[in-house]
Each structure stands twice: as structure tokens, then as C-alpha cells.
Amino acid sequence: MHIAVIGAGNMGCLYGANLARAGERVTLVDVWQEHVQAMQEQGLHMEGLHGEFVAEVAATSDPGEVSGVDLAIVCVNGYNTRQAAEAAGGMLAAEGCVLTLQNGLGNLEVLTEVVGEGRIVGGLTFHSADLQAPGKVRHTNKGPTYLGELDRNKTSRLETIRSAMERAGMQPQVEDDIIATIWAKFVLNCSINPLCAIADLRPGHIREVEAFDEFQSKIIEEVLALIEAKGVVLADPDPLATIKAYSAKKFHRVSMQQHLLRERPTEIDSLNGYVARESERLGLKAPYNDALTRIVKGRQYQPEGEREHIPE
């Protein structure tokens, strides 16, 4: 397959590198010119859980240079989904499709609107990676890559994607109801990523601070109330206990921390911000998610220029 990865950040590079190592033709598309240039000149250097290797990938900042793509994997943050969808739509082959591995909600709807009904495959990942420097990425956490057609059918293209992910070592699992699986990951993202980001902690540290552990529980309870109100049924009978157990054993740097460290916007509006907005629309209260959203927005704000302090 010719695979284009739109958004060559930590996750885009992780998937692009391993798919290229498995024999797929991979093009990485990203706006960060220094990163693109490093990959063009030296390849994509990987280290961590899949070992050290240099992936031979094509890289560009211009999606218009890419065409005939069989699979476009979207790995951008939610606020860039529409732009990524437009780029994907312009590079797909006649039978090509788009796979999203994004966090948050609302991405599937935007991709379907822009690219077209029937051309989107749902997905999500429990892998993690850390962008160390331009052209260098470290694989920090292993987990499943969940895949599924939005209409729940088992298609030949889904099997083709699953097979490629298997060869790449990305632990693919085909889901009967990918939407419910995305909601389950959504709960986890809402209750871990922003908490680690605002306190600069790792997931396993949350339980060590009683007030933060309680804060996490309140976040989860509000998200689960929203899920119930929307009629979504999760396979896990006790998501709170599952998330607590997952958090306790993970000490990687989550993606939202990386965004703040690189002074980039976060995906908070697609996570806890979505919970706050949608809860209000449905007549529910979500004060903890609302407060967390506001705190993250304060943390990600970058003042322009120096301002003189004028003493009273």
C-alpha cells in the first residue's frame, strides 16, 4: 500500500516508521519544516520499545505533492481535523480510504463530511511515543490498535489495514462496534491526559496524591454520566476501576504534556471541553470537566512579547 500519515508528531511517526519497516510505502505529511527536513535528509530515527532503527520514509510539508494514496492515516489534534481531511481527500486514490487514530470526539463527523460517506475507517491506539527532536521519536508505551468500520461490516479494506498493522507490530484488534470503543478510550483520555499535563505528572503519580486521585474520579463520573445520557453502552462494566488500574502502572509522558512543553495548543476542546459543552446541552452538570478545561487553556496560553510591570 501507499500510506500517507497526516500529522507526523509522536504517534504519526510511530505508525509511519513501523509500517515502513514492514514494507509499506509511507509518506509523512507535517507542517513542521525542520522535522520534515530531518526525515528527508537522515530518515526517521526510532528508539524505545520496538528497538532502534532508521525508517526510510518520504516526508513533505505540502500535501499537494502526495497522490495515489491507498490509506491516509490521520494523526493530528482535533482542532486540525478539517484541514487534515481536506488534505486527505486530495491525495486519495479512487478506492483509497482514511483511518483516524485521533483522540477525542467529533473527528469522525468532520472526516465523513469532508472526505465522504463510506471512506472513513474508525480507529484508536493505546501506543504512546515521545518526539525527542526533529526526525527522532521514542516508543514509550505498547497497547492495542483498535480498528473498525463505522457500519460494523467486516470489509476487505479493513482486513488489509489489520494485516499491515500486524506486520508492523502495532497489535491490531478489529472491533464490532468501533464507536463504543472510541467512547471508552475517550473516558480514559479525559481522566489522564489533562491531569498529567497541568501538574506535569505521569499517570502512575495520580493515585499518590489523594486530592488528585479524587479529582480524577469526579472527572470519570461526569464523563460516564454523559455517556449514559447519550445512550452509548460500554463493554466495560466498571470503567472507573479499569482506568484507576491502568493509570497506576503507567509512567510515560502523555501527549498533552508534550504539546505544552513544545508550546503547542492541546486537544482539550475535543476531550473535557466536549464533555462540558455536551453536558450543558443535555441539562447535565460537569463542573470538574469544565474547570479542568479552563485550567488547561490557561496553561497553554502563550503571551506575546514582554510586558513591563508598573508598580502602584
**Coarse shape:** globular
Output mean pLDDT. 95
Beta strand %: 15-25%
**How many β-strands, per DSSP?**
12
CATH topology name of the largest domain, in short, is Rossmann fold
Largest sheet, strands/sense/barrel? 8 strands, mixed
Spatial extent as radius of gyration: 19 Å
Helix content: 40-55%
For this entry, what is the oligomeric state of its chains? single chain
**Poorly predicted residue ranges:** none
Count helical runs.
Answer: 11
Q: Tell me the CATH superfamily of the largest domain.
A: NAD(P)-binding Rossmann-like Domain
Characterization of the model:
This protein has two domains: 2-175, NAD(P)-binding Rossmann-like Domain (Rossmann fold); 180-300, Orthogonal Bundle (N-(1-d-carboxylethyl)-l-norvaline Dehydrogenase, domain 2). Helix 5 (156-167) links the parallel strand 11 (145-149) and strand 12 (172-174). The mean pLDDT is 95. The strands form two sheets. It has an eight-stranded mixed β-sheet with strand order 5-2-1-6-7-8-11-12, sandwiched between helices. A four-stranded mixed β-sheet has the order 4-3-10-9. It contains eleven helices and twelve strands. The termini are far apart. Helix 6 packs antiparallel against helix 7 (210-229) and helix 7 (210-229) crosses helix 10. It is α/β, with parallel strands linked by helices.
